[in-house]
Amino acid sequence: MVPIHIYDAASGENSQAAAASPCSAPPFAEKDYGNGDPDAPYNPPGARNTDSCLALKPTGEVVHDYATKGPAPGDVVFRWIHGSVCAAKNTDPRIQVVAYNEDTYILRENPCVNWEAPFTYLLFGNHGALLIDTGATPEASYYPLRVTVDAIVSRWCGIRRKKSVPLTIVLTSGENVAQNQGILQFTDRAQTSLSPLELGPRMKFHGLGTSWKQGLGRIDLGGRVVEVIPTPGTHKDGLTFYDSYTCHLFTGDLLYAGRVEIANDRDYVVSLERLRQWKQSHPVKWVMGGHVEMMFLPGRGYPRFSTNRPFEHVLQLKAETIDEAAEHARGIVGKPAVVFRTDFILLNRVSPDEKVYQSAPDLPQIPDPYWLSLQ
Amino acid sequence: MDLKSLVNLKSLDRRTFLSLPVVSVVLPAVAAAMAPEAEAMRVVPTAPVGANGPINFTAGVPAPGSFPARWICGSPSCMDNHDPPIQVHWYNEHTVFMRQNKAYSFEAPFLHLYFGNERILMIDQGYTQLRTDWPLRDVVDGCIAEWCAKHGRKVEDMELLLAFTHLHDDHYVGINQFYDRPNTRYMGQTHEEMIGFWGMTNYPEQRVTLDLGGRDVLVWGNPGHVFSEFAYYDTYTQILHTGDMFYRGRCYISFWDKWFTSLKRLMAFLEDHPVTWVVGCHVEISRTGQDYPYGITYQPDEAPMHMEVGVLKHAYEVAKTITKPGIYFTGSVFLCNETRNATTVDRIAYAYE
To answer: What residues are paired with A122 via a beta bridge?
Structure first.
């Protein structure tokens, strides 16, 4: 049951809430809000049901409690930057930063810097920050990832009254040039540990041995644990990261709203099956991939290298998408095929441009709004 | 039907031309245009002659000219591209080749301007609609003003003809920038309008001559990439323009029979016409023969746009052996024979066993 809190401005008290759940009650037993404990001492008198971790009268480092019942609050309520008719005249930011919540940031590279327009995720815990993927452009002048991450980190440190926080940079795939290029900007950064790019050292970095495909890694950010699930299939060294706080799966190229190029269909099926089991034992809010290439139309994708995608699918996929992908991937093992689904397209053993601009007959045939992308 | 406009041959546009047989008013020049192998549009009004008299476009052919060592070819980051929106290259003082910047459109088509004593022919108008996005109109007007100043003409005396190689949007969309331009004629945006514009009655075999005022451009049907497509041959520079039917890249052949027939027609043309260069509308291949996939915005090691005649002849030898759909590499160009949506020769980059 959700306790009803009524804030009385005159007295500055939340009387009903106080009567319904006295402070002595265990903090997480009966609360449904995810983030923060309204009874924790850093909340000022009268402030209740707030997600803010900001102390009104800070006395020192703020330690955030990442324990939640269900996924931590957060949402993506903005449109992503999606390029423009004339890429040369694009005036969007080079990196779009969206604060999913105070400890989770989503960064997108501008499609007019690189058409892959990859997503990069920055997560914070009490003792460390984690950057998942690094974008497709090494040049800081085109794609100032390091500067942007530094700015978010120092802002976050300011909020939490910390001097600094160590940063770990990991990759959903070490070989993927759409995600590993930005790492070069961080090689001389202090308090930073970089994931190696080669398969062997990378698996060792994550505490996975030679039989890494069956293993499970763990990154403790201090109260916030990110688990590392080996998921080869679209890359031979693919990893998926599960964040226990937001309950997102960061899948990179494995599953996203776009034209998924399967590199090895047997591994792909095994990996999706593993995520499926993971989903049964862990809450999964969304699957957050590395790109968006679908149109906001069932089964329709933008072609490769497109720098103008005014009608884009959203980034987040529901957890059930894993089931759908696993089911369809199993059917195409060993065969050249293109599978069109509402939210993604699977390409197996074909050219990356196979059936581009097309869709499947079992999906609603909605023509793309051509006028939106007119040159 | 405006009969006055019929009498005034200068305003013989496609609409009046198309309706001519209906009203059975046949003017001599029109009759000539409708006859097979006739010379269409050889209409000679009072020629606007410059201070130095008319330019002689028939002496000393082929007129020498040069291509740039390197065309603009995109950049690693599109929004950091500082090249001009259109690269303008004067092949010689009466011929301009232009290229659209890849950061404005990945198709990066080539556009041609041929100057004659009375008219200017522009072939293709590029892939960006708005003048505010991509200043094609300003650049073309600038070229015309520059040429007129140099050769003692008045801009208003020179008629601009806007023609296409074929009706794909990367070749005609920019025409929107010209609709308010005075003294400008358009080829039309249907097949019927286009053949009507050239006065063709026997497409694609019929070859017509466009007289730009002392400078003849031959035009004939060149289908294969699409049904409605034209080849252009400039008698002054002796450059053969094959459009998207044949260029250094992936020639998407939609209709093999039509394409091969067009190629044979080109071979026959080469028999009795000297050709300095064969040029196409795009470049999609590197100097080393690497394919730049469809849509890419950076081609750092691009092959030259112009081709020796031998490249075309060799492609004909290769084409003779092709019997099935598929992608064939001649060593210089890819012949994508009825491959429909397999728009690339790429494979999945990270595939492993």
So the answer is: A105, A131
